[in-house]
Design a protein that fits this description.
Number of strands: 0
Helix content: over 70%
Strand content: under 5%
Radius of gyration: 32 Å
Largest sheet: none
Distance between the termini: 49 Å
Shape: rod-shaped
Order of helices and strands: HHH
Oligomer: single chain
């Protein structure tokens, strides 16, 4: 009575199928590169936003010093507060527009990075699928173990 060693049979069968781990390595490298570029965009935006906030605060504090100075007439206090509020409102509009420009640039750069990554990934996936199909066909046709070369995914 002969017993069948299914584990050995599966091992033999799987050894005839090509396995290319370089595509996983290339995918990890591609993802790391994309993450680096995305991080650079985010860090640059944070730096610019911080600089803008600091500049806005410095402007506000310098204008506020005129409000706190001693005035000769009581009406001068009201005028200085009114002037401060007016110039602060103008500055707020300008600074908010600058923040919007930073956000717009981040959005544009992020979209460009993602579109480029998607295009590259699509091309790599197509090439990998063609190669895998060819390797599998060769392995199935010849019954020979095929070692595949590096593909970029």
């Amino acid at each position: 009575m002969a017993s069948t060693d299914y584990a050995q049979m599966m091992k033999d069968m799987m050894s005839n199928f090509p396995v290319d781990t370089s595509s996983v390595e290339n995918l990890a490298k591609s993802q790391a590169a994309l993450a680096e570029k995305m991080s650079a965009v985010a860090i640059e935006a944070a730096q610019k936003s911080t600089e803008l906030s600091a500049r806005w605060m410095q402007d506000t504090l310098s204008k506020l010093s005129t409000v706190t100075q001693v005035k000769a007439e009581p009406a001068d206090y009201a005028k200085s507060v009114t002037d401060f509020v007016s110039t602060s409102a103008e500055a707020a509009a300008e600074h908010m527009a600058a923040f919007a420009e930073i956000a717009k640039r981040v959005q544009t750069e992020t979209l460009e990075l993602l579109m480029a990554a998607g295009k590259d990934m699509s091309e790599d996936m197509t090439a990998a699928a063609r190669k895998a199909t060819a390797d599998m066909t060769t392995a199935a046709t010849n019954g020979v173990k095929v070692t595949s070369t590096s593909t970029n995914v």
